[in-house]
Amino acid sequence: GRIAGAPRRAGVSAHRAGGGQSARPARRAARMWTSLRAVSQPPLPRGPRRRCWALAGGAAAVGVFLLGFFVGWVSKPTDPLPATGSNKKMKTTFLTEMKAENIQQFLYNFTRRPHLAGTEENLRLAEQIQAQWKEFGLDSVHLAPYEVLLSYPNETNPNYISVVDEQGDEIFNTSLFEPPPPGYEDIGDVVPPYSAFSAQGTPQGDLVYVNYGRIEDFFRLEREMGINCSGTIVIARYGKIFRGNKVKNAKMAGAKGVILYSDPADSCAPGVNPYPDGWNLPERGVQRGNVLNLNGAGDPLTPGYPAKEYAYRYDEAEAAGLPNIPVHPIGYRDAEKLLNEMGGPPPPDDSWKGNLSVPYNIGPGFRGSASKRKVKMHIHSFNKVTRIYNVIGTLRGAIEPDRYVILGGHRDSWVFGGIDPQSGAAVVHEIVRSFGKLKQNGWRPRRTIIFASWDAEEFGLLGSTEWAEDNVKVLQERAVAYINADSSVEGNYTLRVDCTPLMYSLVYNLTKEIPSPDEGFEGRSLYESWLEKNPWKDVPWINKLGSGNDFEVFFQRLGIASGRARYTKNWVSLYVFFKSASSLLPAYSNCSFMCF
């Protein structure tokens, strides 16, 4: 997957052949010139000779410059450059061309089937996007494959958690799968809940509740409450920190297994019913995810360099970021059954309590008649080097073709990806279509735009990281900015922007030109509604970029200005309802204007 326009290295054999053929004529010419100079030039005093060489060098430099200027002048294209149009006019045309109904249709098409990285269905979607981007009119579109380490559950030996009695008999098992949503009952290939890259194993022990699994939570257990997690299985709720860090902290505390669950206090809005009657997480809904600690390394077996088919790979024992204890996620219905019988001291304060009907006792172990029961994990997932495919499309710039603005988002999803990532993928698709329509009318962007549909983001940002490692030199020299389109809508309250400070003025100025889609702000700008709903001093709040998304390699490793935008929920009240797909438009249309 070489970027269009990137220079290729000269082959060693060609270089040597060229050097061998030209060496002897060059030496003969040098001897001839030396002899002619000796005959035609009388010896000069030392001072005038230096001045002569200086004048000759200056004349040569001027000659080279004039020659280069002349060659560039006579070789310039006779056809006029494609029109980039005035900024204001093209922004208006672009916004007019984008259609909410197209985004809605693209979103529907992208979410009909699961698209787990490394599967045939995800490759089929990649080929569909490639074909449509070509049809939309991009100058070039290609697939960029990489061979990376992925993780899958064992189809014949499923993962689950059990409670066993003194005789070792299982008296309770967690669910093996989630109930399918209405209308999707006949869809196969839905991967059961699992934690990608979990170690295999069947550890058994007392259960300890560790709140969010943060370092301070483990410190409080050990230093203030005298509870040692060594040799236990810990249960932690999602939230506050990345799940991989929870696993790392648990391992450091001596735990031999980790159970993760989503507590309604962190995952459900008050007053909203669970899906399908509302949009809250249902009791058997489970958050899938990877539990790596990569720190931006990309493929665990090829950290720092692209995972090509021919690349050298570490053994898994030496791989970057792989956990070495079993991990498994469950729904809050199963978590409630485990936590309800917990013994030990009560939680140290209310910050350790969620919204389940349980006392949230710490443990270790169960209480009363269940005190001799243990928790056992059954984890049989496996890792496998698998081919993934990025889709890379290019729209060449008219004035600065060697300057790249990159708009990307991932395509793979754990299941259907209704919000993450397909709401973002649908918006990128409509942006490509709209730019293609403008190109058909004779327009080109000022700078080259690279569109990317990343693969294997859910497994540790692998697709974007491998591509960036593959093109690191040219990206550092030519990339102007990277814009990420992951989840373009997660609520209908207001705009949310995360970006580097270099983009602040751009974002503020552009949102002043875009009409607000919010109710009660008819005839006013997006900037005004954003400022009123999420102010910081006298401007709207812009979040700092962190990590955990495809902008990471561009921002954290390559130092490229990066950003992302989405329509979000009211984080104060957490009580919102989604509205029409028209809310998708303002979030990304403003980011595309740096291409004009």
State the gist of this model.
This protein has 596 residues and is α/β, with parallel strands linked by helices. The chain is 32% helix and 18% strand. The chain has helices at residues 12-40, 46-74, 87-97, 100-110, 120-136, 215-224, 243-252, 264-267, 332-340, 422-440, 462-470, 472-478, 504-511, 526-533, 552-557, 584-589; strands spanning 140-152, 160-164, 170-173, 195-196, 204-205, 207-209, 233-237, 257-261, 289-290, 327-330, 374-378, 382-395, 400-410, 447-454, 479-484, 494-499, 535-536, 539-540, 562-568.
Description:
About 30% of the residues lie in helices and about 20% in strands. It is α/β, with parallel strands linked by helices and about 600 residues long. The longest helix has 29 residues, at about 10-40.
List the helices and strands and how they pair.
Blueprint lengths: L11 H29 L5 H29 L12 H11 L2 H11 L9 H17 L3 E13 L7 E5 L5 E4 L21 E2 L7 E2 L1 E3 L5 H10 L8 E5 L5 H10 L4 E5 L2 H4 L21 E2 L36 E4 L1 H9 L33 E5 L3 E14 L4 E11 L11 H19 L6 E8 L7 H9 L1 H7 E6 L9 E6 L4 H8 L14 H8 L1 E2 L2 E2 L11 H6 L4 E7 L15 H6 L7
Parallel strand pairs: 4-9, 6-7, 7-8, 8-10, 13-14, 13-15, 15-19
Antiparallel strand pairs: 1-12, 2-3, 2-11, 5-11, 12-14, 16-19, 17-18
Helix pairs in contact: 4-10
What is the number of E strands?
19
Biggest pleated-sheet summary: 7 strands, mixed
| Strand order in the sheet with the most strands | 1-12-14-13-15-19-16
| Separate helix tally | 16
C-alpha Rg (nearest Å): 30 Å
What do the pLDDT scores average to?
86
- Please tell me what the overall shape is: globular
Instruction: Please state roughly what percent of the residues sit in beta strands, choosing from under 5%, 5-15%, 15-25%, 25-35%, 35-45% or over 45%.
Output: 15-25%
**Termini gap:** 25 Å
Structural class: alpha/beta
